[in-house]
Each structure stands twice: as C-alpha cells, then as structure tokens.
Amino acid sequence: MADVGEVLMSVLSTIRVPKPGDRVHKDECALSFSSPESEGGLYVCMNSFLGFGSQYVDRHHARSGQRAYLHITRTRKAKEDDNNSGSGHPPKKKPTRLAIGIEGGFDVEQDQYEEDVKVVILPDRQEVTSEDLATMPDVVRERVSLSMAGIMAADSVSHTLQVQQWDGEVRQESRHAADLKQLDNGVKIPPSGWRCEVCDLQENLWMNLTDGKVMCGRRYFDGSGGNNHALLHFQETGYPLAVKLGTITPDGADVYSYDEDDMVLDSKLPEHLAHFGIDMMTMEKTERTMTELEIAVNQRVGEWEVIQESGTTLRPLFGPGLTGMKNLGNSCYLNSVMQVLFTVPDFQSKSVPYFSYSPHPPLPPFSLFVYHRAKLGYGLLSGEYSKPAPDPGDENGCGLSNINQIGIAPRMFKALVGRGHPEFSTNRQQDAQEFLLHFINMVERNCRSGPNPSEAFRFLVEERIVCQQSQKAKYTQRVDYIVQLPVPMDQATNTEELQEAEHRREEGDSSAPTVRAQIPFTACMAALSEPEILTDFWSSAVQAKTTATKTTRFASFPDHLVIQIKKFTFGLDWVPKKLDVSIDVPDTLDLSALQATGQQPGEELLPEVAPPPLMTPDVEVKGILGSHGNEEDDSLYSPLLCQSVSPVLDDSTVSQLCEMGFPMEACRKAVYYTGNTGIDAAMNWIMGHMDDPDFSAPLVLPGCSSGPGTTPTESLSEEHLATIVSMGFSRDQATKALRATSNVLDRAVDWIFSHLDDLESMDVSEGGRSAAESEGREPPPGPRVRDGPGKYELFAFISHMGTSTMCGHYVCHIKKDQQWVIFNDQKVCASEKPPKDLGYLYFYRRVAE
C-alpha cells in the first residue's frame, strides 16, 4: 500500500477549500438520510462538498473518481444532569420566557455530541488525522488543514432550516415613542381600582398613552379577554400606544402599538406614565403579562393533551411505514402531510420506484423534485430509519426519550419544496392545508409524461346556477383536490352550555370552564350541499340582474378524498381566530347523494350571451369574445380588449385595498373584475378569491397578450406544451393556456385548471379520459380524473393544536392494519384514543364494492 503522504500529494489538486457561496452538505447524505450520527458516519467529498453515507461513498468514488473525503462521525453524549434524579431525568423547569433554545425559554432538548473528524482516502480507506498532518510536507498540511477547517466551519445547507434560538420577547422601539403626543386634559390615573370606561370590565385593561383613556383589550379566540374597546378607541382617534395596567413595574411594562400591530418598547415610558400621575417606581405587578399569557396558551391543557394523547402510556412502533420525522423547526406541518401522503398507494408505487442508488447519469433538472420525493418515500417506507434513538443517559429506559426514533430529517426535501416560496422557505409555522395544495401543485408541474400520483385526489366539481326568473340553468365545472366543510356554529348541540360559559366569562368569572361546541357532521355536510342564494346575478336570459340559486355537486369521485374542516376564520375585527369545536366525523362516508346529474331532461340552459361591458366611455371596445369572472354575476366578466388597451382602474380603490395588506396585483384584479364599482364590491371579490392559485398573479386579460412582443403567432415552448399535454390536456388547450399567460409554464398550469369552462368546447386528449369510461359513463371533459362509487372509509387525519395556523403544532393519526397510529414528529406509537372529533384535515379512501 502506498504511503498515505504520497497518496495525499497525488490527490492534492482535487482538494478544495470552501469559499463563500459554496454549499456544504455535511448534515445529510445526498442519496439517503444518513448523517454524522448514523452508523458509519458521513463522508463529505472534499471537492464537491456533497455528503454520502458509508454505504454510498464507494459508488460516488467509482462514478466521480474523487478519492479524498472528510469523514465526520458524532456520538451522543450523556447529559450532565441526567443522573440528578432517581429516574435519570431532572424535573423540567416551566418556561418563563417566550423563547426557544435560550435560558428560561421552551427547551428544544438539543443533544450534545462528541465529534470525530478525519480524512479518508478511497478506495483503500486510508485514514489521516490532524495529528498525522503535522508530519507531512507543508504544502500538503496547509491545503488539507484549510479544507478540513473550512468544511467544519461552513454553515451546512440545512443550517438556516434549523431553529437554534428564537426569542419572542425581543421587541423593537416604537417609532411613536420619541415624539408621542400627550394631551393636557388633566386626567390622573389611580394606582388601582381600574375599570373599562365603556363596559366596566376590571381585567385586561389598557391605558392609552395619549389621552389616558382606560379601555379593555381584545377578545381572545376562546371568548375570554376583553371586549375590544381599546382597539376601537384607537380606530376612532388614531392614538397609537397603550400600556397594560397591572403589568407596570420599575423594570417596565407591556406596551402595545396599534399602528405597528405589535408589542413594542417605549424608552420614555416613565415620562409618559408620569404625565398621567403614575409613578413607575412604586407600581407592582398585578396581572399576567402578554408573554405569560402566550406561554399559558402554548401549554394549554385540553386540546394539546387530547390530540397528543398525553397522560396515556403509548407503545412505540418500529418497522416499514412507521418511520418518524425530525422537526426541523416548525416543520411539523410538513411531517404530518408527508406521512399521510406516503400512505396513499399512488405515492408509494409511483414515487419510490423512481429512487435508485445505482450510478446513473445526472438527473435532469426537472426530475430533481421527483428524485427527492422518492427519496423521502423510501426513507419513510423502508423501515431503515425506524429504530429507537440511543439514549445513553437513560439507564432505566424510562421517560419520553425511549419512544423517540432515529427517524429522518428531510432537510434537502424541505429546502427544495420551499425554495422561492415566501412562507414555506421560512421557519415559521404554516397551514397544513396550504402546504398540501402547494405540494400537489408541485407534483402536477413536475409529473411530465410520467405517472402523476396527485390524480388520486383530483376530482371535478359541478356548479349549477338557476335563474329564478327564467328558470334556465347554467353548468360549470372546475378541478379541485379538497372538500372544504363549513362549520355552522348555530347548529351546536350544546348551546345551553356554551351560553352559560359565555355568561360567566362576561361577568368576570375566571373559573368559568372552556366549553367546546359540539357540531354534528351532518350539519357541516348540509351547509355544503344546500343551495346558495345569489342575490345579484346577471341573467343572460332576462338581460338583467336577478336572483339565482347555486348548487354544488361532485362531477367525479376521487380515489382518495380530503376533507378540510374550516376551523380558521376571521372575527368581526379581522383578527384571525380558530373555532374550538368537536365534530363527530364518521369512519365511513357515502356521498352518492351528492353526485352531479348534469343537464336535466327538458331543462333549458341560459343563453351564451355576453353581458354589457363595464368600461369607461373613453375605452374603445374592440371585441367581446368570451368571459371569465365572478360566477355570481355575469356582469363582472372581463371583456376581451385589444392588445393596446389597458384596463382603466380606480387608483383610489386600488390604494385602499393595498393599505389593507393585500397584494397589488390582487387589488388590481378585484377592481377590474368588479368594474370600478367601489371598495365594498372589490373587498367582496377579494374575500371570495383569496384561495385562488393565481390570487397574487399579474392581471392578464383573457385573449390578450400579456407582455410586449407576445402575438398569437409567437412560437411557444415545445417543452412547456409537452408538460401540459402529459397532464391529460390536448395540444390546443395547452397552446391556449400558454398564450394566455405569456408562455410562462407555472402560470399556464394554474390558468388551465381555473378556466375549464373555456376548455369544454375543445377536445380532450386520449390520455385525459377517466376510468369512468370503463363503466359506461361519459367522463366529464377536462384533465384526467378518476371516478367510481362515492363510498369512503377514514384512514388518516391531521390535527392542529394552537390558536391559529401561525403557531401551534401538528400531529397525524394513520390507520395501519386496523390499528390507529399517532405520528408526532419522531414519536410513532400505537394510538389508544384517536381524537377523531378534533381533526383539521381528514383523509378518506374509496371502499371497494
């Protein structure tokens, strides 16, 4: 065997020192979920800085010819405090600070590791330690040492995805504090005995620092708190800062800026309080601070304990399909969704076979998503990582740590699916339903000509609108993936208990229990299926606005049905809140009664006549060729203008909407599609279209070119055409979508799924026919959809704990071999009491007849 020094000299030209901007993959194998903590450690290529597990580094060497790798191994150390108590675990301290990973905050239980680093030369696996380098020539020692130090010092690709510290108490100085205007109105505030000046409430009181008015705070999601009088006072006067009475101490107080919509610092607080006769140095704390209230919410007993099945002894499970996923910092929404999706046969059979470790040529860029999706599927289904996590500090094997798995940390996958997205690329908590749709959208865009597993969820919805004056009907169809069930709070079966609890809270009874509304599932389904009254519908039959009814039915039944309980809503003050409800969701579901029937015998259809254009007198109408707009009002349909004409929009209405925080392009579309009829109509349009995939996309007039140089004869990308055709649409339909969106593939895919009405008259490609043909039923036109009986059984549900989608925690329950299993990040256990009544997303599969 050659001398190791000579070997290093021979490969020295291939050893690089990381530069700023180099991506160093030192936490996760490129081909598996092996890490430095895995058996055999991780080998980092000292040229490309890609990481490889011990079972794949030889293949990379054979394929690339690279010989020098930095071998990193980590061994978990026993915690110093582990033996301070009889159980091996000291009592956990309650958090006193709204933070993660710092003193007094929520403990993220970061493990401590002993790290071993050395250079390994393949194929003979000759090892070189730092001590060995000291005896080698200067040129070798310098280059290799710098490369080793650079790799270890560089931030890994996943570093920004991991939450190390977060401090929710770090507040910024208010921009109003320095020159806050205070009225000389003679108001003096006593040191105690405060009451709201409007409703006489004696708790959760805030004093406005401009005029000294004492008002109650906001009403919380569960009905407690105040009556919003301090907020209403700001809306009337514009006075921005308020201090929470009862939190004032010599060290500070809670100060809220209504204008900045956040807790803030006031460097002149002693001066501002003294103006109203309050001596900050003599005040004592009598109420919980907002931080303490938030911590209490995050530790709330009830929903959290029930959903996580706390207080019961859970039996850990291991094996194929029972692999936990590490929380990368508020990534529980991703973990829960992906666990459920890889229970679906389409994602199992059409994803995992793509994954191969054999040395193939590099995957083309469009397959990167398919590759990482398959890699994740293999990691979850193989059972390779479903092993108990080692806990050297727990000699008795007791405590929660013994049910944690090694699991997988999907760092690369999370970075890929979140890349470029304003929310999913961050560490903030997200809505699991929004992520599910985002992921399905990525699957649609990346399926190309290969199998598309998202077809398992795709279905068609038929909407039937009947003009009440002419009794003529209009039928439209659209693609959907999720059924959104409204929550009719007025149908609660325990109304008396709810009213009693509300009455006690209004009287200031702090011991009043939090009563959860009991809503029948049948009431939710009835709210979905009952006809909706459209009071301002433009009828092409009578050429005027009249009343109409809209009924929604299933034009096809998917293999797997997703139901979302619409728990998240907005209060009257536009503050997001979550409905605390219990719904008796059934194990089996029969939706046959909701199957669409299409045009009825003898039923007349509304004429295909365009409504009068809504335009300013100075806009020349070159032609009205079609319509797309608000389904409730044909008059809101946008006329097709010539290329040189731009829509005339009311700038003041657009500005008002933008000031409310809505995207500029969404505001422009709202004003355009409502024909410049005012802020109310535009706001209604926005609230009805916030879930549209192209909500924030630029305003594109149907049939018009959307950019300079785009003409009907301009060549379109054959690659883009092939992508859309592979989804089941014809070439003509794909061409129409690309021309309507300036040949931008992402926008064209969104456009084609939201404009199925336009495509009904166009032929569908052979691949777009559904399985319903085999049953003798004519499939609906449009994209490839499956159809079958509308009978389903529940096989999974995702639950959310917390006050809104912006905070809290997600877990999922999945039925495997007739046993419910709870997946709580790295904990995978047999479920004893699955809380099916508290779910957020429910997943059903078709029952075979």
TrEMBL record:
Highest taxon in the source lineage: Eukaryota
GO molecular function: cysteine-type deubiquitinase activity; zinc ion binding
Gene: USP5
Protein name: Ubiquitin carboxyl-terminal hydrolase
InterPro entries: Papain-like_cys_pep_sf, Peptidase_C19_UCH, Ub_carboxyl-term_hydrolase, UBA, UBA-like_sf, Ubiquitinyl_hydrolase, UBP13_Znf-UBP_var, USP
The EC number(s) this enzyme carries: 3.4.19.12
Lineage: Eukaryota, Metazoa, Chordata, Craniata, Vertebrata
The species this protein was found in: Lates calcarifer (Barramundi)
Record field: compositional bias (Basic and acidic residues): 772-788
Binding site for Zn(2+): C196, C199, C216, H229
